[in-house]
Structures are given as C-alpha cells and as structure tokens.
C-alpha cells in the first residue's frame, strides 16, 4: 500500500501530525497587523477551505460580507469603539486598568475585513438536524471559520475575531439581510509577530486551562 492509500485509510505520517500540532498551537487571535495587502489568490485559497467544513444537514449556512468601503469600515470601527468603552465601564480597579491597555481589534490596520453570518432561514439541508437544535447551523459556521483560520495561518496570515460589537447595529450598517445572524467580524492580514501563547495570557488577563474530561453518570 502506497503513501496515499495509507492516508486515505486514516493513518497520517508522524511528521504531518507534528506539523498539524504546530499549526494549531500557532493559530493565534491576531490584533496587531502589518498594513501590507493580502494576495487575492492566497485569500481565495483560504476561503475555499470553508467548503471542506462540516455543516448540519449539508446546509452550508455561512454567508460572508467583505468590508471594503471606507464608510462601512468606519461604521464598524465606531461600533467597536463604543462597545469597547461600554465594556471598560463594567470593570474597576486593576482589572479596568489592564482592560484599558489591551488591544482588542486590528480594525485600523487589517487590510482585509469580513463579517461572517449564519443564514438561519436557509432552505438548503431541508432542516435535517436543525429542527430540534437550530443552533447547529451557527455551530457549522464556527467550524467553517476554524478551517479558514487554520488555512490562513498555514499561508503566513493571521485572523483576529472581533466580538466587542453591537451586532444589531452592525447588521443595520452593513444592510445584512433579515434572517442572517452575525457570527463574527474578522480582521485578516500579516501579523506583526507570531507566538504560541495567547496575547491575553501574556498580558496577564487570564491563564489557559487544560481540557477536562468528565464522565457522564
């Protein structure tokens, strides 16, 4: 049996598994970008990875808006800044000081910015698996984003997931169709630096925990 047949049967080489582990460890939430443009062919390759994602009922509910215009980017940045100020007001003391010094978005620098949605009303998939758990469509979009994220990192690019936002206001500003649920706003570009440590951990905001496996009773 040749190498390709080995892979098709489920056995990947040790070297590949080592590289995959490295790729996952270096997949960081990037907030500090260089302003260099992103090659469109590379971006397309990474977006194509989304088509490999699992989706409930094969519904493929992901919808992607590219934020190119100055007006749309300014509206999204203003949204973040207002939400960030409101979030800061919810902290006090040392934690407020630490929060104020965190860089929580790369929206001013990132050359590519996307808003990714879930189409909760899609007819594709005929509702299979979503009748009892409609949130599965949104989980499917998150799975697709994860593949996109890893693909970007493999190309030397970074992704920053901006969640400090008012989604309803962003939907209005971007004229998103009814029935689309915002999953995230994403900044994409070349990172200023790479690390296998989350920035929030290096800044002292929180420490990573080991996954716990709990047996059901």
Features:
13% strand; NADH Oxidase; 40% helix; 8 helices; alpha+beta; four-stranded antiparallel β-sheet; 217 residues
Q: What is the mean predicted local confidence, pLDDT?
A: 95
CATH class: Alpha Beta
Number of DSSP helical runs = 8
> How many domains?
1
Give the CA-CA distance, first to last residue.
43 Å
List segments where confidence is low: pLDDT < 50 over at least 5 consecutive residues: none
CATH topology name: NADH Oxidase
Account of the protein in words:
With 217 residues, this protein is an alpha+beta fold. It has one domain (28-202): 3-Layer(aba) Sandwich (NADH Oxidase). It is built from eight helices and four strands, in the order αααβααβαβαβα. Strands 1-2-4-3 form a four-stranded antiparallel sheet, with helices on both faces. Helix 3 crosses helix 6 (136-154) and helix 4 (70-89) runs antiparallel to helix 7 (167-174).
């Amino acid at each position: 049996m040749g190498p390709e047949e080995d892979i098709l049967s489920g056995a990947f080489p040790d070297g590949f598994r080592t590289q995959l582990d490295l790729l996952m460890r270096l997949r960081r939430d990037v907030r500090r970008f260089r302003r260099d443009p992103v090659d469109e062919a590379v971006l397309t390759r990474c977006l194509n990875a989304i088509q490999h994602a699992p989706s409930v009922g094969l519904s493929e509910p992901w919808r992607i808006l590219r934020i190119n215009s100055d007006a749309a980017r300014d509206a999204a940045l203003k949204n973040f800044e207002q939400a960030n100020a409101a979030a800061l007001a919810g902290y006090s003391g040392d934690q407020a000081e630490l929060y104020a010094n965190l860089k929580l978005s790369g929206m001013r620098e990132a050359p590519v910015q996307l808003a990714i949605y879930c189409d909760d009303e899609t007819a594709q998939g005929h509702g299979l698996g979503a009748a009892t758990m409609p949130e599965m469509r949104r989980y499917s979009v998150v799975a697709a984003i994860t593949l996109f994220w890893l693909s970007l990192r493999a190309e030397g690019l970074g992704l920053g997931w901006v969640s400090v936002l008012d989604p309803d206001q962003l939907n209005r500003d971007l004229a998103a169709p009814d029935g689309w649920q915002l999953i995230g706003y994403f900044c994409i570009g070349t990172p200023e630096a790479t690390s296998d440590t989350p920035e929030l951990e290096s800044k002292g905001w929180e420490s990573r925990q080991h996954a716990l496996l709990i047996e059901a009773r």
